[in-house]
């Protein structure tokens, strides 16, 4: 399973990228706002640092305007994936841009039917949002399973990019289901390393090493 980092925070991306934990990056207008940076500048910096796809989202609502914005974003670097919303206009923009050989990430997916349409429109990635469904007491992981099953039934090549990930548990569950990619905030990726028994065991080992005067160098 590939790891994308869901942030526009350059230092957070750098830290994970240096560890080989970054296969790509996803951003959205809210994350760009949080960064306080100009979208074109910050996206360029991310693209220079990361080898894999970097999703940058359009803000227009009409297909023609999304395509124009998408072309502008594509000028930033070769590894840009244009992110469009799962609306009828977004699907039209997706079809045009993918037909020209560009990567498109169709975002804000909340149903299996939406995911089928994105695959038919040639999307490179489909982004179903787990956490925002969980917030409504609908199990977001069920949607990931449903899309996996449907895409496998028909051999759709669109990559299943699990998004709106809120916990380390979401990551392992998505890996079990067979998501192609998970995009998660840096704190969630780092939380995957945590376990209370690891902390407890390490405390004991440190104490015993001190008691026994163990010195290696
Ligand atoms: C995906 O590409 C989105 O940027 C993101 O995962 C949304 O997550 P949120 O629901 O936590 O805002």
- The assigned structural class equals alpha/beta
Chain-averaged pLDDT: 98
The CATH class turns out to be Alpha Beta
Give the proportion of residues in helices. 40-55%
Give me the CATH fold name.
TIM Barrel
Oligomer: single chain
Distance from N terminus to C terminus (CA atoms, Å) equals 38 Å
Shape: globular
Bound ligand species: erythose-4-phosphate
Keywords: Cytoplasm, Pentose shunt, Schiff base, Transferase
Family: Belongs to the transaldolase family. Type 3B subfamily.
Main location: cytoplasm
Pathway: Carbohydrate degradation; pentose phosphate pathway; D-glyceraldehyde 3-phosphate and beta-D-fructose 6-phosphate from D-ribose 5-phosphate and D-xylulose 5-phosphate (non-oxidative stage): step 2/3
Notes on the protein architecture:
This protein has helices at about 10-20, 30-35, 40-50, 65-75, 90-100, 110-120, 130-135, 140-155, 170-175, 185-190, 195-210; strands at about 1-5, 25, 55, 80-85, 105-110, 125-130, 160, 180-185. The chain starts with a strand and ends in a 6-residue tail after the last helix. The chain has an 8-stranded parallel barrel with strand order 1-2-3-4-5-6-7-8, surrounded by 6 helices. About 50% of the residues lie in helices and about 15% in strands. It has a single domain (about 1-185), classed as TIM Barrel (Alpha-Beta Barrel), CATH 3.20.20. Helix 1 runs parallel beside helix 3. The longest helix has 16 residues, at about 195-210. The mean pLDDT is about 100. It contains 11 helices and 8 strands. The protein is globular. The protein has about 220 residues and is an alpha/beta fold. It binds erythose-4-phosphate.
């Amino acid at each position: 399973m590939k790891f994308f980092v869901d942030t526009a925070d350059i230092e957070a991306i750098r830290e994970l990228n240096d560890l080989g934990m970054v296969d790509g990056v996803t951003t959205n207008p809210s994350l760009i706002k949080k960064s306080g940076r100009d979208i074109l500048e910050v996206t360029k910096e991310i693209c220079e640092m990361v080898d894999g796809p970097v999703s940058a989202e359009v803000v227009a609502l009409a297909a023609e305007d999304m395509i124009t914005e998408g072309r502008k974003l594509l000028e930033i670097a070769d590894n840009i994936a244009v992110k469009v919303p799962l609306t009828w206009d977004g699907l039209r923009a997706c079809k045009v841009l993918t037909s020209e050989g560009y990567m498109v990430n169709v975002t804000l997916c909340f149903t299996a039917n939406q995911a089928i349409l994105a695959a038919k429109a040639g999307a490179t990635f489909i982004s179903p949002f787990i956490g925002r469904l969980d917030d409504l007491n609908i199990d977001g992981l069920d949607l990931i399973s449903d899309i996996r099953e449907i895409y496998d039934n028909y051999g759709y090549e669109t990559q299943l990019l699990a998004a709106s990930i809120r916990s380390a548990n979401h990551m392992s569950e998505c890996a079990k289901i067979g998501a192609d990619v998970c995009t998660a905030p840096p704190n969630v990726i780092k939380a995957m390393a945590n376990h209370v028994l690891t902390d407890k065991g390490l405390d004991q080992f440190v104490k015993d090493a001190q008691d026994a005067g163990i010195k290696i160098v």
